[in-house]
Write a structure and sequence with these properties.
This protein has about 210 residues and is an alpha+beta fold. Helices cover about 25% and strands about 30% of the residues. The strands form 2 sheets. It has a 5-stranded antiparallel beta sheet with strand order 1-9-8-3-6, with no helix packed on it.
């Protein structure tokens, strides 16, 4: 009995049990919430990773597309000196640094357009130095546009099909008047390179089907 009373009078210890898990900062957060938060973080990382892959893919496609687009624009003046024809070349292509290095002869061309083409856009530009060359364009004997200062960026002119287009040299900026011309919608996807001394004309006979 005395022992029992001593046990009852023995003060209880409130020291924490070293084997009991101590409370952590997030112990008041239910396990389900903690796990959900982790899942959300993982999901966010996955979405960011997917976005990176998406934009990398888009960039690769754009680069590939640009490469395909400009593939036909490569060439040199040697490719066109023999006949003035640039097969598959794009409007605005630059082939020479100066007019006097072009070595082109004045030529006339006949160009066939695709079936049922009634109008076409003619593009004309300077494929060498922008040195102040000036030309006038006539269609069927009538002036379509006079005194065009041809530059690297193509000038757009609408012409009827069929028609006869004349490009006349007006002013030589130095080294001769040289230019490139293209007619989108032609059967042959070519650009044509020519020389037009002052006062002389190059004739392009545009035919339909």
């Amino acid at each position: 009995m005395a022992n029992h009373e001593q046990n009852e009078q023995k003060p209880k210890s409130y020291a924490p049990n070293q084997y009991e898990p101590r409370q952590r900062e997030d112990d008041d957060v239910p396990l389900e919430v903690t796990g959900s938060s982790v899942n959300r973080k993982s999901s966010s990382k996955g979405k960011i990773s997917n976005k990176h892959r998406f934009w990398i893919g888009i960039t690769a496609l754009i680069t590939f597309g640009m490469g395909m687009y400009f593939q036909g624009s490569t060439g040199s003046i040697k490719d066109v000196q023999s006949n003035g024809i640039g097969k598959g070349m794009k409007a605005g292509i630059q082939l020479a640094a100066a007019d006097d290095s072009a070595g082109l002869e004045a030529r006339d061309f006949e160009i066939e357009m695709k079936k049922d083409t009634t109008t076409s856009r003619m593009l004309i530009w300077d494929f060498a130095a922008e040195d102040g060359d000036v030309v006038t364009v006539k269609v069927d004997g009538n002036i379509l546009q006079a005194n065009i200062n041809i530059m690297h960026n193509p000038v757009f002119l609408d012409i009827p099909i069929p028609s006869v287009v004349e490009i006349t040299g007006v002013k030589d900026g130095g080294g001769g008047i040289t230019y490139g011309v293209k007619f989108p919608g032609a059967v042959q996807n070519n650009a044509y390179f020519n020389a037009a001394p002052v006062g002389s004309s190059n004739v392009y006979t545009i035919t339909g089907q």
